[in-house]
Write a structure and sequence with these properties.
2 domains, 12 strands, globular, binds calcium ion
Length: 231
């Protein structure tokens, strides 16, 4: 074999033996039902979404949750999430009020997920096994629900996390829309994409604009005839 051919063959062999750099995994929390209608135990769940373009092996990931820290509860994960797929963790009991769905990982989340309230609670996703996660571990994704982050729960950057969404009533979930914003979802979508965000009802805004225009005209008329009107 010619020397240049041997070098080319050697380079090709090295390239074949070197795994491609893994694409950055994009597993995120997509929906959480933490407050079931009736008893919560065995009926809470978390939906994860693989927003990336490669499968994610969940054995290297874990969930955490709580109100004073992100790891009052921790759950080791297992299974695999295909690119673009959604994976529901929890239960193992289903809910007759929802469309049929199956758990990717049917497991009782213990202790139960916090139920929000004035002090916000959180569910977090970690890119390491549960036994390697401590209260100091930063999550790769986190959702806070309730009113205020009084306990200083941290976001993936290590900053005090913002509260994402108000407390959902029993039977409703919190869901991350395709626009990335969290909302209360009265009709949960376990294992399925979020519903399109409804168009804001423009009628109240139009009525407000008309009322404001009328009010301004009224004030201007009075101002023209009565210099004491305080605009
Ligand atoms: Ca439970
Ligand atoms: Ca709960
Ligand atoms: Ca969903």
């Amino acid at each position: 074999m010619h020397r240049s051919s041997r070098i080319a063959a050697c380079a090709a062999a090295i390239a074949a033996a070197t795994p491609a750099a893994p694409a950055s995994a994009s597993l995120v929390i997509a929906e959480v039902l933490y407050d079931a209608d009736g008893a919560d135990d065995e009926r809470e769940w978390v939906e994860a979404w693989n927003a990336g373009d490669t499968p994610v092996d969940l054995s290297a990931w874990s969930l955490g949750w709580g109100g004073t820290t992100l790891v009052s509860g921790r759950q080791a994960l297992s299974g695999s999430v295909e690119a673009g797929a959604r994976f529901v963790i929890g239960g193992p009991l289903g809910d007759a009020a929802m469309p049929p769905f199956s758990f990717g990982l049917a497991i009782d989340l213990e202790p139960d997920l916090q139920n929000g309230g004035v002090t916000a609670d959180a569910v977090a996703l970690f890119d390491r096994p549960a036994d390697a996660v401590t209260a100091e571990t930063l999550p790769v994704d986190v959702v806070l629900y309730g009113e205020t982050n009084d306990t200083g729960l941290l976001d993936p950057a290590g900053a005090i996390a913002a509260v994402d969404v108000a407390d959902a009533p029993a039977g409703a979930s919190i869901e991350r829309g395709l626009d990335g914003l969290w909302r209360i979802q009265s009709e949960p979508t376990p294992g399925a994409p979020p519903r399109p965000v409804p168009e804001p009802d423009s009628a109240p805004l139009a009525a407000l604009a008309i009322a404001t225009a009328r009010g301004l005209r009224h004030v201007r008329r009075r101002a023209a005839g009565d210099r004491s009107v305080n605009v």
